[in-house]
Specification:
With 451 residues, the protein is mainly α. It is 75% helix and 0% strand.
Length: 451
């Protein structure tokens, strides 16, 4: 479903040129094309109440099945319809399905994973999303129209079927006072038989969290939840205010402004997505070794440098200097940006946000963060367009540069290191208390380091 959501996110890039060409099977105006992008984001926001209810009352597993089923329906509509209104409806529903996916799946993986590989497993969700972007860029450009929705149908139908065979989250079962089912789920998830210690830890964690009642206002009233919300909003907003949505949607026009270097839009998109895919894969492997803070700081710094060099290039061009001999610089900076962004800024947030909320408000917290992610995308695109219209391209690029370096400061001051921490220890950390790992010879738990 994450691959499908990535395909949905990038679908308009190759499809709008198709719909506005002579080869189209549906007549689409430029304004209709803009609505195809916006209505998908609106669907993400509209899915908020359904997602909260689903993950808490139906469970993480069932939410992923519903998400995939709805996603499959959307691809079927895109494959079969000749009506523009049906396309809009499909895009809206696909946004709702994506919202549910990117709350339920990270939550599920964070709750079933051993803490030593939780970062790696959680980051695979974002890796799959980038795979989806690359797939839609390739199939949308190089294959007939029907191929893209056919791929989406196969992917989402597969999830809707095979997720039935996965165990539900033990945390969800304990939260629902069904410890026997939680034990059975753990038995499927662990390679050892000594489950009493881990199950007891889950029960203690959920019991402590239940004292906070899980009311919506607890997200703000309780200090540790408020800190978790603050961190998640800044991480999600920071991704867009360093310009990722702008580059995904305006890559060709940005490179065209450089002068002599011209990359075909489809080629640039595929190279950009391919670079992001490689860097995301590398980050997924090293995130549990190097930690979240290190990746965030290094990613923010190198992304900021790439944006700064690009800003200076366009500023010199605006001042009338001859930069034609080095017009390759923006193209190189864009690819460096794609590689370094995904190593930290584009990957760590989805891992951390699934870790830092307690079970009682996790659905609400993650969904609010997900909606803020969408709103930040819309605002950042509007900010870019406004500054570009009133000034020149170097001005919004300077703004994105400043945000990149501000993310370093925010990470140093506010982001906790969750590498190697259990979910219980992370909650104690946010409360300002010290946690500890219970040791077991069979589970081979490592020693807890200092917070």
């Amino acid at each position: 479903m994450a691959i499908s959501d990535g395909m949905t996110y990038g679908w308009t890039s190759p499809m709008i040129p198709y719909f506005t060409s002579n080869a189209t099977h549906i007549i689409v105006t430029e304004n209709d094309g803009e609505w195809m992008e916006t209505i998908n984001l609106l669907g993400y926001a509209a899915g908020l109440p359904f997602t909260i209810l689903s993950v808490d009352y139906l469970g993480r597993k069932m939410s992923m099945i519903i998400s995939a089923t709805l996603g499959c329906l959307c691809w079927v509509l895109l494959l079969t319809t000749m009506n523009l209104k049906i396309i809009f409806t499909s895009r809206f529903l696909a946004g709702m399905a994506g919202d549910m996916c990117f709350v339920a799946a990270p939550m599920y993986i964070a709750e079933i994973s051993d803490y030593r590989i939780r970062g790696f497993l959680s980051s695979l969700i974002y890796f799959m999303m980038v795979v989806g972007i690359l797939i839609v860029y390739c199939t949308g450009t190089l294959a007939p129209y029907w191929v893209t929705p056919a791929v989406g149908i196969i992917l989402t139908a597969s999830q809707a079927v095979f997720v039935w065979f996965l165990p539900e989250s033990p945390y969800y079962y304990v939260y629902k006072n069904n410890c026997e089912k939680a034990r059975k789920a753990l038995r499927k998830l662990r390679s050892h038989d000594d489950l009493d210690q881990e199950l007891k830890g889950i029960e203690q964690e959920v019991e402590r969290e239940k004292t906070e009642k899980g009311r919506p206002q607890d997200l703000i009233m309780i200090k540790s939840n408020r800190l978790a919300l603050f961190i998640s909003l800044i991480l999600n907003g920071g991704q867009h205010f360093v310009g990722i949505s702008v580059f995904l949607m305006n890559l060709e026009s940005i490179l065209d402004k450089a002068g002599s270097v011209h990359i075909d839009s489809s080629t640039a998109s595929m190279i950009f997505a391919g670079t992001m895919l490689i860097s995301t894969g590398i980050a997924a492997v090293i995130i549990d070794s190097f930690g979240r803070k290190f990746l965030l700081i290094s990613s923010s710094f190198t992304t900021g440098l790439a944006l700064l060099v690009m800003s200076i290039f366009f500023h010199l061009q605006y001042l009338g200097h001859d930069v034609s001999s080095v017009s390759w610089i923006p193209a190189a900076c864009v690819m460096v940006y794609a590689a370094t962004f995904k190593v930290g800024l584009g990957l760590v947030p989805i891992v951390m946000i699934a870790e830092i909320f307690p079970t009682t408000v996790k659905a609400l917290g993650m969904t609010v963060a997900d909606v803020f992610y969408v709103l930040a995308a819309i605002v950042s695109i509007k900010l870019y367009q406004t500054l570009l219209n009133y000034f020149q391209i170097h001005v919004p690029l300077y703004v994105f540069t400043v945000f990149s370096f501000l993310m370093i400061l925010f990470t140093v001051l506010w982001i906790p290191e969750t590498k190697g921490q259990t979910l219980d220890d992370i909650q104690l950390m946010l409360k300002g208390e010290k946690g500890h790992h219970n040791k077991s010879e069979k589970s081979d738990h490592i020693e807890q380091g200092k917070f």
